[in-house]
Each structure stands twice: as C-alpha cells, then as structure tokens.
Amino acid sequence: MKRLLLTMAALILALPLGAAELGDDGLHKTDWMRDTFKDLREDLAEAKSEGKRLVLLVEQRGCIYCTKMHQEVFPREEIDSYIRDHFFVVQMNLFGDVELTDFDGEVLTEKQAAGKWGLLFTPTILFLPEDVPEGHSAAQAAVATMPGAFGPGTTLDLLTWVREKRYATEEDASFQKYHARMIEQRRAE
After folding, report:
1. Could you report the per-residue pLDDT of 124-155, keeping only the tens digit for each?
2. Of 13, 22, 18, nearest to 80 (Cα)?
3. Is residue 166 part of a domain?
4. How large is the angle between the packed helices 152-163 and 175-188, nearest 10 degrees?
5. Which stretches make up the Thioredoxin-like fold domain (predicted)?
6. Within a domain: residue 46?
7. Where are the extended beta strands (E) located within the chain?
8. Which residues 6+ apart lie within 8 Å of 99 measured at CB?
9. Domain with 131 in it
C-alpha cells in the first residue's frame, strides 16, 4: 500500500502544472496568451513597451501536436516562466476568420494571413524582431519560425536563441549549431 501511495504521489508530481484548457474555438488557452485586436503593429509596440518579444502562435482545432506542446512542453516550469518573462504571445487560428492587420498594413483573416505567410503546419511559432521594416509582412520580418512541435530542450533553446538575439551573432547565427552546443553543455553538467 505504501509503495502504491508513493507511486501515485510521484505520478501526480510529474504532471505538468497549469496545462492549457480548450477554448470555445477548440484552441488551447494559457494565461500568458494575449487577447488583442490583432493589429500586429500595435501588438509589437505593446510587447516592446513591456520589454518583451512578440510571438505569433498559430494553431488549429484538433491539432495533436498543439496538444503535445500545451500538455508536455509549455507547462514545464522553466519554459512557462521563460515565456511569461520574455515573450508577448498572440495566438492565431490557422483556419480562423478573425481579422488581423499585418505589419504591411494589409487587413485579412487569420486563415488568409496563414496562406499569405505560407504556413502549412501547426503549431507554427513566428518570432518577430523588435522593429519590423516598413512594408514587411510578419513572415518576411520573422527572425525565426518554429514549424511543428518540438521537445522541451529544443523549445527552450529556441526561446533563448531568439531572446538573446543569437541569430545576429557570427558564432550562433545557425540555430542548429547553437542547439547542438547547448545539448553538449547539458550533457557535461
């Protein structure tokens, strides 16, 4: 009996904290997502005013990979707190009809924006720079795009790589090389 109780306690403690709930639109909702008017220029300005980076998280109803991210990756304490502290996350529906205004001024639905940006998979995360050049769309301006679900280590490394602007350094311009180095460092610890 004691062994059973210890096993149950270990399983409960291993569960992610604060897993996302499904919203009325069938997408996962977390409290670090921002409910905005989806004018990306305004969202970028608000993110900058908070000292954060703008992120567009594109998902769809029934996406098993979105579920994986929301149940296994995003709730991990180190990832959840990193997102909260450093990113301004705006969720989009790959097939949504909510209007948004792209950085280039074009007003279109979420699904039209996804088509314009060439997005095919969910989840897809677009990481925006602090300043978007005039006339650029979100896809043109993105400093990185994460197409699909990745494990906790890759996700945290990408969040760090973007936040620390490693993409702009000669040593770490390649995320793959940066990530490989981080894997080696974790193994050495």
Report:
1. 999 999 999 999 999 999 999 999 999 999 99
2. 18
3. no
4. 120
5. 47-131
6. yes
7. 21-22, 28-29, 33-34, 53-59, 87-93, 99-101, 107-109, 124-127, 144-147
8. 38, 107, 108, 109, 110
9. 21-149
Identify whether 129 is preceded by a cis peptide bond (ω within 30 of 0): no
The answer to whether 153 touches 186, Cβ cutoff 8 Å, is yes
For the whole model, what pTM was predicted? 0.88
Q: CATH number of the domain that 120 lies in?
A: 3.40.30.10
Gap between the Cα atoms of 186 and 177, Å rounded: 14
Q: How many domains, the chain?
A: 1
The structure tokens listed for 31 are: 């409290």
CB neighbours (10 Å) of residue 30? 18
Place of tokens 């069938």: 26
DSSP designation for 39: B
Q: Is 11 among the domain residues?
A: no
